[in-house]
Structures are given as structure tokens and as C-alpha cells.
Amino acid sequence: MAKTILIVEDDKFLRELIVRKLVQEDFKVSEAVDGEEGIKKIKEEKPDLVLLDLILPGIDGFEVLARMKEASSLSSIPVIILSNLGQKDDVEKGLKMGAIDYLIKAHFTPGEIIEKVKAALG
Amino acid sequence: MLKNIKKAKKLKKKTDRTKATVSQRKMIESKQSEFVSLTAHQLRTPLSVIKGALRMLLDGDFGEMTTEQRDCIEKIYRSNQRMVALVDNLLDATRIGEGRYCYKPTPVQIENTVRLVVDSFKEEAKRKKIKLEFKKPKTKLPKVKVDQGKIRIAINNLLDNAIRYTPAGGEVTVSLKRGKKEIEFSVKDTGAGIPKSQKEHIFTKFFRGTNAVRIETEGIGLGLFIAKNIIEAHGGKIWFESKENKGTTFHFTLPMQAGKVKQIDN
To answer: What does each C-alpha distance from B34 to A87, B23, B30, B99, B206 come to in angstroms?
Structure first.
């Protein structure tokens, strides 16, 4: 069965590009435009993986990640952070909080992001 | 007596004024760097999306293109990459200025780092018809404790300049060897060279050589400033020899013993 990926990203164009790539690769895709919607969909849909932006309107990505890790039913869902924040401290913070990977947007193309998703899902 | 008091008062006024000017200047500088940092961050988002979209176009995700269309998109992609690099440089320079540039050293096989950077320039060198060579060290080098990401930026900036200011048919040679107490890196080019009168300014922030500006209008003069800060924070030295119209060689050293890196945490 096709795996479901939830993408939490407020930039519409980037979201569309990644969704397009994921659909091409036969993934089922769900979208959230902010942290609030992200948390709601993670709880309701229990996706196989979450692609999470950090700077989001309202609840930011770190907060989404923290809430996921607090809930036992959600804590095992793998999260890949996709962010513009490239400082080592941000990367370390994200990984320490339990994200399995941290991709800096300017350094990864949608194709490479999908490769990381595939690798994470084994 | 009265004269002396008057004099003293006048002096105090002057000192206060100087103090005010210094703190005002500091405030303006900090506001400026805050502005640059914010702007650069804001620019990064659309630039990343443009990069992603262009890459998908080139990968054929939106269907086939004619050769002409592909050439054009490739040029846009390269220009966009330049912009991403410029924004990254601006952010790095601001962090250096604010003392927020973070160094986290780990033991690194420096030869691998150099090779990675050299390989990343192969395509560009080929396109510009420049012979790019990496002279490996004769003996295996010991691991050095450095911040690999930052050292990569320093090497990248030196190599980027060498390739950028060397004309077609020229040569760029990178070499790495073991010195007595340090590892020695150099990149030699047969490019434009640095005019004698400008040699002392070459590592200054936002400085660009007059001949460099003529060759390439892009660039804001941050690459060498950043490289120097990175190397010196590692306890190394950076210097160059250059002759106008003949070429330039940049050298840097990195100490082999551990614990030399100035560690800065945010």
C-alpha cells in the first residue's frame, strides 16, 4: 500500500513542487499550511512520515515536533525537517528533539528531498 | 584656576560627545547587521524554491524541453546558485561581525574535504576550459580538529576566486602537504592577479580589486574576508603571493595539534 507523507510547509510554491515529486513516486500526500493544521492532521491521519518546515505561522515546527514527541501514539512517526535555518545550533536542536534528518532548503532540490524520504522509509 | 575648570569642563563635554558618537555608531552598525541578516534570510526562501523548480524543469519533471530552452534554464539555474551563495556569504559575514559565527571542531581527514571541494568545481573548470589539478599529499596526513563545514567554506571561497579570475586555457593547482607542525594548503592560479596597490586591502570586508570588478561584475567582496576569519579562528595563517596578469597563489596553514580552535558557541 502507498505510504502517506504529510508535508507541513507554508510556502505554496515549494509545497506544490514537493507534492508533485511525491505523487510521481506513488506516495499518498497530505498537506498542511501551518503548525496548527499540521498537528491536527498528524493526529487524525497518522502519516508514515512528516516533512516539517520550521518557520511557520502560529505554532512553529519545533513546537510541532515537541508535541509529537510528547504523545506516545505519534512519537514514533519519523520527521524530516525541511528548513531555511542553516545554523548548526538549529540543526542540532532539531536532531536532538528527535527529527531523523535535517535538510536545509537552499542546499537540497525536491528530487534529493524525495530520495531522503525514500531512504527513511526503507 | 577658573580657566582650568573651564578647560576641564570643555574636555569633559568633548569626551561625552565622543562617547555618544561611538555608542551611536555601534548602534547603527548593529541595526545595519540586523537588517542585512533579516533581508538575507527573507531572500533565501524564494531563492530555494526557484532552485527547486529549475532543477525539476531540468530533470524533465514538467516534460521535455528544446535544447535552447534547456540552455537558458541552465543559465538561470547557475545565476540562482550564485545568488544563494551571495546570500550565504552575507549571512556568514554578519555572523562574523557580531561574533556569532559558530565553530564546532571534530577530527577531520582534511584531504577528503579538499577533494570534495575540488570535485565540486570540476564541471565549472571544464566549462571555462581551465585545467584544474589537485596535488595530493605524498604521505597520509593526520586528522586535524577543525570545523569541517567552515573549512569547506574557506577552501571553496579561495577556489571560487581562482577559477573566476583565470581566463580560458589557464591552470588552477590545488596542493596539500604536511609541514613541521601544520598542514599546508595552497591554490595557485594563472589568472588576473592582485594589483600591487591593492594587496593590503584584499582581506577587507566588501573590498574588490579594480581588475576583479572589470572581469566580473558579480560578487560583493566577502569571500576572502570570510576565509581569513575561518582560518585564523582555527589558529592558522593565511597569505598570498600575486603578480598582476600572471597569477596568484593563496596559502593557508592549519595547526596539527588539537585544541587550537577558538570555540564559539551561540
So the answer is: 16, 16, 6, 13, 17
